[in-house]
Amino acid sequence: MKGVFIGLGSNLADPIAQIESAITALNDYDEITVIARSSLYSSPPMGPQDQPDYINAVVEIETTLFAHHLLDALQNIEQQQGRVRDRHWGERTIDLDLLVYGNNILDDERLQVPHIGIAERSFVLYPLAEIATDITIPTMGKIEQLLSNCPRDGLKRVE
Ligand code: ROI
């Protein structure tokens, strides 16, 4: 499957290292090849404000895994990196979200794809736009249109 995008976020335990290590772990799967990655971005927390800023990025992969098996792989990587998440919308070591799985639309108890938060989250949309300049997201529309309705909200590219 092509046109598969994963969002990464971290705001604990050396966030940049967490993101880099998760990208390496993804590419280490025989069934997954990372074919593009965005810059790293820093973003103020969405959710409780008494937590550190996040580092975010988006990668494009090519994979032979079906969506639910890909989700298993993402959750395994989160576990291997000792994911900690104590409160709802609180700080976390690493978060891997399946954003887009080609043109597929999935909606069950484990997976909603495209990820419902994409359009409102500048920390997902801007890194996605960097590596998928012309994408039309199923059910959501063209990325230019989504960007024009989504303020950056303090999102900064990390130099
Ligand atoms: N806020 C930002 N800025 N970046 C994230 O990756 C992120 N992830 C989350 C919540 C808690 C919603 N807030 C976030 O899961």
Q: What labels describe this entry?
A:
alpha+beta, 6-stranded antiparallel beta sheet, Alpha-Beta Plaits, two-stranded antiparallel ribbon, binds 7,8-dihydro-7,7-dimethyl-6-hydroxypterin
Which H/E pattern describes the elements? EHEEEHEEEHEEHE
Q: Report the CATH architecture.
A: 2-Layer Sandwich
Molecular shape: globular
Averaging pLDDT over every residue, what do you get? 96
Q: What composes the largest sheet?
A: 6 strands, antiparallel
In DSSP terms (H or I, runs of 4 or more residues), the helix count works out at 4
Distance between the termini: 32 Å
Q: What proportion of the residues is helical, as a percent range? A: 25-40%
Classify the beta-strand content into a percent band: 25-35%
Q: Care to count the β-strands?
A: 10
Oligomer class = single chain
Bound molecules: 7,8-dihydro-7,7-dimethyl-6-hydroxypterin
Find the CATH topology.
Answer: Alpha-Beta Plaits
* CATH homologous group name: 7,8-Dihydro-6-hydroxymethylpterin-pyrophosphokinase HPPK
Query: What is the C-alpha radius of gyration, as a whole number of Å?
Result: 15 Å
At the first level of CATH, the class is Alpha Beta
Strand pairing plus helix content: what structural class? Answer: alpha+beta
Q: How would you sum up this structure, described in words?
A:
The mean pLDDT is 96. The protein has helices at residues 15-28, 67-80, 122-131, 143-148, and strands spanning 4-10, 32-37, 41-43, 54-63, 95-101, 106-107, 112-113, 136-137, 141-142, 156-157. It is globular, with a radius of gyration of 15 Å. β8 and β9 (141-142) form a beta hairpin. The longest helix has 14 residues, at 15-28. The chain has four helices and ten strands, in the order βαβββαβββαββαβ. The chain has a single domain (4-157), classed as Alpha-Beta Plaits, CATH 3.30.70. The chain has 159 residues and is an alpha+beta fold.
